[in-house]
Amino acid sequence: MVWSKPTIDTKFHIDTDWWESNGLSFRLYLLSQLCPECRERFPNHRETEMVDWVDPDTAEVRRADALLECLRTYCAQRQDFISPDVPLVAAAFRLLLLNDNRPMSPREMHEVIQWRPPEAILRVLTGEQIYLGILPVSEN
69 in a domain, yes or no? Predict the structure, then answer.
């Protein structure tokens, strides 16, 4: 594998294996990203992986991750969910969650995180320390 220095067009994602290998709980951190109202609905992150989720608009019932669906359906509607008041790495993490963890580049992230240029987003995601398991997508 040839390594190349990430650019503002390099795609990043949340590597859930990073969480496990560092002895951290992805689900516990996910719970902490919920808005206060949703945190009241879920006293803990256990037994919330797959539940019957009722779409509030269509009333369709489907199997879904309760924490992620709550985050996408309710928390993401709040103006402060991804805002300049949120640390940049947390804003990137939340954005990736809303995007179903489909890889995004700093340039694409900047479309939502408009208060920081793509170069600043790249610097945070490629610093010496890995934050929240956000890593470049392997080119293999």
Answer: yes
